Amino acid sequence: MSPTKIALIVFACVFGGALLGMFLRVLTPEHHRRQDSHDIIKLGMGLIATMAALVLGLVISAAKTSYDTQNDAVKHSAAKILLLDRMLASYGPETKEMRDLLRRIVAYRFEEIWPEDCSPPTGLQGPVPNSQAFMAGILQLSPKNDAQRWLQSRALEIGSEIMETRWLILSALGSSIPLPFLVVVVFWLTIIFGSFGLFAPRNVTVVAVLFLCALSVAGSIFLVLEMDHPFQGLIKISSAPLRYTLALLGQ
């Protein structure tokens, strides 16, 4: 389910809880709404509100940290790919095929991750390029002097780092927020807004304020879910570093 749909469901639950509380206010006997009952309910809701605020704060911080980590990984990978291409170029003309394969690999990954940003298209045709074959090609090089041996060693090291970063990025894909966790947080928020409606007067101003508060809560959930999927949606990692690298490969 998309973050937008989940955020709308959260808004409906939270604002619906507030409206339900206002409806129950009419049905609740007067002696249940005395000041001492009000104080106990405020204490209980304060405890739940504190837990919900702490949990939401931790989740937003974790999602932002994960987003920044993957964004940095993409930038570093783009720089290392360009450095690897330049090292192969310095090795000699015998690496021409490997440099072409490297460009095909990067173009394929670019189209795979950012398909909507492929304009103009890279024109990738033929079988899917294999990164293992690329690394095997570097291993099969026969250096003739110390400079080529150093370049081969560095190319293997940088290639391994790029592959490691790629697997780290792939392992972080998918949702890291368990559904039961999200359900519990929304349940807490619904209870809190229900208590607001239970003791709130029934007028347009109060309903408008509760509406805006519920919209803000749903917006925070939306931001968390968007940052939890950094390669799609409205808040996604920019393709500019890899696009710049792709434009320079092979030159």
Poorly predicted ranges: 120-126
The N- and C-terminal alpha carbons lie at a distance of 43 Å
Average pLDDT level: 82
Largest sheet at a glance? none
Quaternary state reads: single chain
Assign a percent range to the helix content: over 70%
Structural class, please?
A: mainly alpha
**How many whole angstroms does the radius of gyration measure?**
27 Å
In DSSP terms, counting alpha (H) and pi (I) runs of 4 or more, how many helices? Answer: 8
How are helices and strands ordered from N to C? HHHHHHHH
Number of domains: 1
Net shape: rod-shaped
DSSP strand (E) fraction? under 5%
Care to count the β-strands? 0
Description of the structure:
- The protein has 251 residues and is mainly α.
- It has helices at 3-27, 35-91, 96-113, 131-139, 146-171, 179-199, 204-227, 240-248.
- α2 (35-91) packs parallel to α7 (204-227), α2 (35-91) packs parallel to α8 (240-248) and α4 (131-139) runs antiparallel to α5 (146-171).
- It is rod-shaped, with a radius of gyration of 27 Å.
- It starts with a helix and ends with a helix.
